[in-house]
Task: inverse folding
């Protein structure tokens, strides 16, 4: 039986992650929904539990996992939303960290490497756009199920496919990029010599079959698909998305101080970058030749496959999460190749990275909380100025050029959810119907808004107009 000291030596990274989880949860629970959080399938759903609405394809995506979350939240929105959502995200992030520890163990890395990389994954700022979001459960659980699928795949049993295929479909029903594990499993296994070339070819064919079955299912299911312009691929979009992917995955800096104009502080951004650069220097520069090894080439290919669907369509900081497990494997391989006498500088650089990352994480969470509170304040103002419940509201937004940054710093009208946040404030009692439109900002924008308000109230059934100008709310009845 292992002593307490022995357990700590073997699992100190996992222990630190578990200790940090309540602190992370405490911060994240204060974040209110913003932007498309108010429109996702994880928002409170009050419909009766019919199979069609909750498990068959509708809208943009086929994500039964999301609809189940929304159904549960709808049972008691004030108590469960977004608390229920946040708890699932943090639980999933914790389980992903532990799964990465197990994955690195199966790939043959020593206990020092496993612990460092597990802690790296848990605190790295690149995960924060996912960790702080209200609707990102699909992202974390797609990755978690994908890792579990790989751990089953590398077992030397012919019956493993009976579990592998359902797990890949389960990951896909969390989020579409889960389907990529149909190819990631054999490629990564081949890179680390779990399978030979013949098995690789056979299982790639099986992966193609899995994709075809999923595509056929999508075609046959009842659906109402409208392709959003943001999802249309293009060469310039792929280039821009690739740059975002490389920056968020391999550069650690305080994004808000660097990229968000109202909060820009280049001095603090540079300090955060300088604290994290030494660690990445030891990993990617000093040992760059390791990247051309067979197992690292396979890992890089898997990284590209994992984020490929996002590079072709929409890529934001949140979508970095899908590929971070492979960044972790690359880092693990580099650390493993350091000799005992030369690892001390690497450890010191990792401590600097941890210090900077935790500070950056705290800043990202703080700004996310502030953005959510803006939406809450605007909702309370709209409700107070409206005076009494109304059934229908038309929201007119004067175009706001306020800069945004992912889900950390959002435009006020997006925090307001184009009026949807007010429904939450009334416990979804009113207004029952909300419609919105945006007016271009100009010298006569206010006059246009007043004319449109008069037209709406005189010629439609809308009982009230909410005019949104940055953070200000005016009500016309």
Result:
């Amino acid at each position: 039986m292992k002593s307490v000291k022995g357990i700590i030596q073997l699992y100190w990274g996992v222990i630190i992650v578990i200790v940090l989880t309540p602190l992370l949860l405490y911060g994240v629970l204060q974040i209110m929904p913003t932007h498309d959080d108010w429109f996702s399938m994880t928002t409170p759903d009050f419909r009766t539990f019919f199979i069609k609405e909750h498990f068959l394809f509708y809208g943009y995506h086929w994500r039964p996992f999301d609809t189940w979350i929304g159904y549960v939240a709808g049972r008691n929105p004030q108590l469960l939303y977004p608390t229920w959502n946040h708890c699932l995200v943090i639980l999933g992030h914790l389980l992903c960290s532990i799964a990465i520890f197990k994955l690195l163990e199966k790939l043959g890395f020593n206990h020092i490497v496993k612990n460092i990389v597990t802690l790296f994954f848990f605190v790295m700022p690149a995960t924060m756009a996912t960790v702080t979001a209200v609707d990102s459960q699909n992202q974390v659980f797609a990755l978690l199920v994908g890792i579990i699928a790989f751990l089953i795949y590398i077992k030397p049993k012919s019956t493993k496919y009976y579990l592998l295929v359902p797990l890949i479909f389960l990951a896909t029903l969390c989020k579409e990029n889960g389907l990529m594990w149909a190819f990631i499993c054999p490629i990564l296994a081949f890179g680390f010599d779990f399978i030979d070339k013949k098995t690789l070819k056979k299982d790639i064919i099986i992966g193609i079959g899995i994709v075809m079955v999923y595509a056929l299912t999508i075609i046959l299911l009842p659906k109402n698909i409208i392709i959003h312009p943001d999802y249309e691929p293009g060469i310039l979009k792929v280039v821009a998305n690739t740059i975002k992917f490389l920056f968020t995955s391999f550069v650690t800096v305080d994004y808000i101080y660097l990229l968000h104009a109202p909060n820009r502080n280049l001095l603090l951004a540079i300090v955060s970058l300088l604290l994290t650069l030494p660690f990445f220097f030891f990993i990617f520069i000093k040992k760059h030749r390791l990247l051309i090894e067979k197992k690292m080439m396979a890992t890089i290919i898997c990284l590209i496959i994992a984020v490929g669907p996002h590079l072709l369509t929409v890529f934001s900081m949140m979508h970095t999460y899908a590929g971070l497990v492979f960044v972790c494997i690359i880092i693990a391989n580099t650390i493993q190749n350091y000799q005992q006498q030369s690892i001390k500088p690497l450890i010191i650089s990792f401590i600097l990275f941890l210090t900077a990352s935790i500070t950056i994480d705290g800043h990202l969470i703080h700004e996310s909380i502030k953005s959510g509170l803006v939406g809450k304040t605007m909702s309370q103002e709209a409700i107070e100025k409206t005076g009494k419940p109304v059934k229908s509201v038309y929201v007119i937004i004067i175009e706001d050029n306020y800069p945004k940054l992912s889900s950390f710093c959002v435009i006020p009208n997006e925090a307001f959810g184009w009026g949807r946040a007010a429904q939450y404030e009334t416990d979804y009692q009113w207004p029952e119907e909300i419609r919105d439109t945006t007016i271009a900002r100009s010298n006569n924008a206010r006059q246009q808004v007043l004319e449109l308000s008069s037209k709406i109230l005189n010629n439609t059934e809308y009982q009230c107009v909410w005019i949104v100008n940055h953070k200000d709310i005016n009500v016309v009845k």
Notes: The beta strands are 392-398, 433-439, 464-469, 472-476.
